[in-house]
Write a structure and sequence with these properties.
The protein is an alpha+beta fold and 418 residues long. It is built from nine helices and 20 strands. Helix 5 packs antiparallel against helix 7 and helix 7 packs antiparallel against helix 8.
């Protein structure tokens, strides 16, 4: 009973079933938004919301169910590989394939078998003589191609699981001059400058962050990152992910004293508790204009005609909406609200993935296995006194054509030597 279960566990049939289940789970994880709270799923999917959370469809890739399925798939793949690997290694040493009905005999009367053998040796075939005859062989290492491929897949999966379990990632925003400390990792980064590269039509082509990196007991170094050019600090990768405008607001009294100063970045709301007033920055428009519906827009990211769209709310609700220029005050009771200036800020995603190198190594091994399986597969030529038969399990037609050409070349050389 145990042997039957073990054989099923490492069987190809069970492996295919697991692969289909993993594919279905991956589709679910792609279609259903991940990481939301329970209320989102209850509102979005109603009756099925609680069931989806129970089945962990809200966090598919870190769910216990998904991890168990993937681990069982790894066990299946390892078991299947260990089962066929000894046979493949034995084939690399003393395997001689049998000729099939569709294998073509390329022998012709003019051929001298010893000359043919010498010709195959020059073409990097290894010629081996046996009691039954001879055979030429090339790329016998291709026998282990499928096992190498399986090994690569196993390393990729394990690397991805390790990376998913121990990954450290986050997101920060920095305006020029701001500093972010990564004390746990022993370094600090400062944004020196951030700027856009614009096309002729004013649209954004690329954006750049100029950073200074301060590491413990090392000289500060300057780095520039942009999209598709991340920064690596001791295995922590920083990616240029987005940008925005940081707008500075001041609330002053009638005498001009600053009561509150705030910077608007990603959060567009600021609350002024003395008046129970909420200031909403609807948007900053560096090149202000209005569309046909009367909505504010920006024609480009060039600061040509800057303006702010601002909405005020108090405890009773909506107060008023405003379009103001930099420094232009909004009066509310005995205070003034001013947007002084706006500067570009950078959005950086950082990630330290401990599975990166295993996945990279696994990908290299996987690629090697595919090359062995499909390009360096074993090629045999059975040789006797009246037979020259190309034999291979892959692309036998193409291999036969190649041997025909080789034999023609040998015949031409033989004719020139006579």
């Amino acid at each position: 009973m145990l042997k039957k279960f073990t054989n099923f566990l490492i069987s190809l049939k069970f492996g295919i079933i697991l692969f289909i289940i993993i594919a279905v789970y991956s589709i679910i994880g792609t279609v259903i938004p991940q990481g939301m709270d329970l209320q989102f799923y209850l509102n979005q999917y109603h009756t099925f919301g609680s069931l989806m959370v129970f089945l962990q469809f809200d966090r598919v890739y870190s769910s216990v169910i998904y991890l168990v399925i993937v681990l069982v798939f790894v066990i299946n793949l390892v078991g299947c590989t260990l089962k066929i690997l000894p046979v493949q290694l034995k084939k690399m040493k003393d395997y001689i394939p049998a000729k099939g009905k569709n294998n073509e005999n390329l022998y012709e009367n003019w051929m001298d078998i010893e000359d043919i053998k010498s010709g195959f040796i020059k073409k990097r075939f290894k010629v081996i003589d046996t009691e039954e005859g001879s055979y030429a062989v090339k790329h016998r290492i291709g026998h282990i191609g499928s096992s190498v491929t399986h090994f690569g897949i196993v390393i990729i999966i394990l690397g991805a699981l390790i990376g998913n379990m121990f990954v450290k990632e986050g997101y920060i925003t920095l305006a020029p001059g701001e500093i972010y400390e990564f004390n746990e990792y022993g370094f600090t980064i400062k944004l020196d400058d951030f700027y856009l590269e614009l096309r002729e039509d004013g649209s954004v082509e690329q954006y750049y962050s100029e950073l200074t990196v301060y590491e413990d007991e090392q000289e500060p170094r300057e780095e520039t990152i942009w999209v598709n050019n991340p920064l690596n600090i001791n295995g922590m990768y920083f990616y240029q992910s987005n940008y925005g405008w940081a707008s500075k607001m001041q609330i002053t009294c009638a005498e001009g004293h600053v009561h509150q100063e705030s910077i608007f970045k990603e959060n567009p709301h600021v609350f002024y508790d003395k008046e129970n007033l909420t200031v909403l920055l609807y948007g900053y428009y560096p090149d202000f204009s209005m569309d046909i519906h009367g909505n504010p827009i920006t024609l480009s990211q060039n600061v040509r005609n800057p303006a702010y769209a601002v909405v005020l709310y108090n405890e009773e609700g909506y107060v008023n909406s405003y379009i103001v220029r930099p420094g232009q005050p909004i009066e509310y009771k005995d205070i003034e609200i001013k947007f002084v200036d706006s500067v570009l800020y950078t959005g950086l995603t950082y990630r330290q993935d401990f599975g990166y190198y295993p996945v990279m190594i696994g990908s290299i091994i996987l690629t090697l296995g595919i090359l062995l399986s499909f390009y360096f597969y074993p090629k045999y030529i059975l040789i006797s006194q009246d037979e020259i038969i190309p034999v291979t399990r892959q692309n036998v037609w193409g291999f036969t054509i190649k041997i025909k050409r080789m034999l023609k070349e040998l015949n031409k050389v033989r004719g020139n030597n006579q």
